[in-house]
Amino acid sequence: MEIFWYLPTQGDERYLGTTIGRRQANYPYMQQIAQAVDKLGYGGMLIGTGQKQDTWIVAASLIPVTQNLRFLVAFRPAIMSPALSVRMAATFDQLSNGRIILNVVTGGDSQELAKDGVFLDHDQRYELTDEFLTIWRSLMQGDEVTFNGRHLQVAGAKLQFPTVQKPYPTLYFGGSSDAALQVAAKHIDVYLTWGEPPAQVAEKISKVRRLAAEQGRTVRFGIRMHVIVRETTQQAWDAANELIKYLDDETIASAQKRFSQSESAGQRRMAQLHSGSRNNLEISPNLWSGVGLVRGGAGTALVGDPDTVAARMLEYADLGIDTFVFSGYPHLEEAYRVAELLFPRLPLQTSQIAIPQQLPTPFNEFVTKTDLLKPQPV
């Protein structure tokens, strides 16, 4: 099992749906999160794409200030050429000594995509993604590629330098429509689902496995969700309710109207879990859909004490999930909390760096006021 964390390049929050306690995504804050995630021993960190700070530039800026952290870099095939994407990924792979993973995001919002000059319908976007990945994978494996598709064409393209990771950095991908599942089965290493109840996740995993088998392939599975873990179950549910305490009906209705315009099958599935209502937000034991009232994309969280959350994670692992991509608000503090409370209870793949504990009293006596003014490690 691996646990990844999320870098909030759109800004961080203490409460959803309000500017109260909001933090700007400036470089010092993002560096703090990245270094914490690195030192705490997470398997990687997702950096999302969309109308916010550029994913590639943010990720590249964090290479020299981290040591082991792998960057799950999200990108959209429709807004860049496959040959350019290959060169960027291969360059990042070399400069970071193999610390890049890629999250392929086709995109489900036509209005947002139009801002980047993409005017394709839902199925056309997945056709383009299929063509893109056909070219991309061949180039990464050293082939010279000439390709003439419906959406993309290249002539004599070739990557001129080797990658660290062979045959290429791991490809993640999410999508719930039939078109998306076909792309996943044909090209993807790790299929990433949003945090639906276990029965729905099991159904999706079964379908992707079957489609991949038809292609002569196997696929791994990950899940993207939030987590609210506290020392006691009551404290965890109190924290969940605290997160949405400033939400009013108007804010929820406005967000749900915006989400309803998305062409994403996954977004529709998220919305159906709560139907825009505050009632019955616990849609499965310890699976809470309150985040999705106002947040697009991943809208559920595991909520509970450490033993309970770990048990729920193992239930997903039994279905085939081996990577959990988590968020928590605010992301800096919650990265520490999750590592301290959850990591010791899980069969993690990566070797964990010891979690900092309170210093012994004799040491504390030698800490002076001058020492406290010195720059402290994250």
Question: What features would you describe in this structure?
Answer:
With 378 residues, this protein is α/β, with parallel strands linked by helices. It has a single domain, classed as TIM Barrel (Alpha-Beta Barrel). 40% of the residues lie in helices and 17% in strands. The protein has 14 helices and 13 strands. The strands form two sheets. An eight-stranded parallel β-barrel has the order 1-2-3-4-7-8-9-13, surrounded by seven helices. The protein has a two-stranded antiparallel sheet with strand order 5-6. It starts with a strand and ends in a 5-residue tail after the last helix. Its EC number is 1.14.14.5. Residues 1-322 form the Luciferase-like domain. It catalyses: an alkanesulfonate + FMNH2 + O2 = an aldehyde + FMN + sulfite + H2O + 2 H(+). Keywords: Flavoprotein, FMN, Monooxygenase, Oxidoreductase.
Radius of gyration, Cα only, in angstroms?
Answer: 21 Å
* CATH T-level fold name: TIM Barrel
Helix content: 40-55%
Estimate the mean pLDDT confidence.
Answer: 90
Low-confidence stretches: 351-378
Q: Which word captures the global form?
A: globular
Which architecture per CATH? Answer: Alpha-Beta Barrel
The secondary-structure class comes to alpha/beta
Q: Largest sheet, order of strands side by side? A: 1-2-3-4-7-8-9-13
CATH class: Alpha Beta
CATH superfamily caption? Luciferase-like domain
Give the biggest beta sheet: 8 strands, parallel, barrel
- Figure out the total of helices: 14
SSE order: EHEHEHEHHEEEHEHEHHHEEEHEHHH
